[in-house]
Here is the input.
Amino acid sequence: MKNKIKDIVIIGAGPSGSVAAGYLEKQQASILILEKQKFPRFSIGESLIPKCMDNFEEAGFLEALGFQKFLKKYGARFIRNNEIAEFDFSKKFGNGWDWTWQVPRADFDKALTDDLISRGVEIKFETEVTSVSRGDGLWRINISDRKGNTTKITSKFIIDSSGNGRVLAKHLNLEAPPKIYNHSSIFTHIKESSRPNGIEGAQITFEVLNTKTWFWYIPFSNGDSSLGFVGPNSWFKNFEGNNEEVFNSMLRETNYYKDRFDSYSLKFNPVKFSNISKNVKYIHGEGFALTGNSAEFLDPVFSSGVAFATESGLLAAKLALRENNGEKVNWELEYSRHIKNGVDVFSTYVKEWYSGKLQEIFFHPHPNPQIKEQICAVLAGYVWDSKNPFVRNHARILENLYQLIQKEKIV
Ligand SMILES: Cc1cc2nc3c(=O)[nH]c(=O)nc-3n(C[C@H](O)[C@H](O)[C@H](O)COP(=O)(O)OP(=O)(O)OC[C@H]3O[C@@H](n4cnc5c(N)ncnc54)[C@H](O)[C@@H]3O)c2cc1C
Here is the structure.
């Protein structure tokens, strides 16, 4: 292999790296993607939110994704005992997309990379970045292929979109304590041979098992459905056996879905992740930016992972290109602060979900339509819209609303 200097090397071809590459391809930048696995490969993160669509559009993917006929997602439903809270993205505050997709990520990520390849982007699959070093303003990236052959690539800039591979976080010692502690998840897919009609068989639903623990049901257009649990590590310790036994015992703890999946076998042995929240000290430095999960992951509860992965991938690509073109970029202001502003909003909603306060707001029997629209815009991922009071004053307004509901209960 000739060791030509690449302007930008992207590590990882998940949604974050692919969106970065899609944008850069449109600008005819010199890029290379290094991807450890062979695609299609399984990944979790199957329920998108509308904000993702803006990013896929800007990176030039909407047409290719449209051909895949993924199941459209128009909203989300939360169930707690006999209470139901439904959010319809067409009834949200402000502008923006009012639908998105529920996607088996193996197919979705393959569709993104196939499109990139058809647009001339070079992707080296089954090529793992094993270490990186920097000198004279350039990165030397050591890679190893499927057969264990090693070589070096030189680049001016690295966009690290390696997800849980956390390549730069590990090599540059950037790991930091997570914002959400000690949460685990276990999940699998089933093939539903007879799916109920209407929203029962089409809409993503979250069932609350207790304040800190919940179950997801995500149907796909290929007939498969994703089922999973998220909760504190301590709750997971209540279940014994192998992953399949644990998963089946958990299913019996659900109320709404208890009997629905009895006749279906699991498509694969349930996968368990512990301590799922991740964080780093900083998300950019000389000649690099971290995007998507390699930077930070909060919690699956509001399906915000791919939205942040694509938002950060797109923005890092724009700034890296400007820098490579000789412009001075203020990464702290233009990158870190933008991502942090959005993460801060979602952090509040995630924190107050698990404190139970947001659940009291969601399941209020007579929600105020205007407030619901504003919260719906947050759930759709429009967390940078400062016209929305539920974005602008996120922490204070949720607390005030919760206190109001408590007073109402006393009166
Ligand atoms: C239980 C759970 C449920 C979730 N549910 C949702 C959801 O419903 N909706 C949602 O939006 N998000 C969800 N998420 C989050 C979502 O999975 C991630 O936010 C999203 O996949 C991040 O995308 P990414 O591109 O950053 O990383 P990834 O999609 O993980 O892609 C990273 C890529 O980098 C490659 N890589 C890793 N190391 C190396 C290396 N050394 N060299 C080369 N390549 C490498 C990997 O092979 C991989 O293909 C969930 C997360 C969890 C844990």
Summary: DSSP finds 13 helices and 19 strands in the chain.
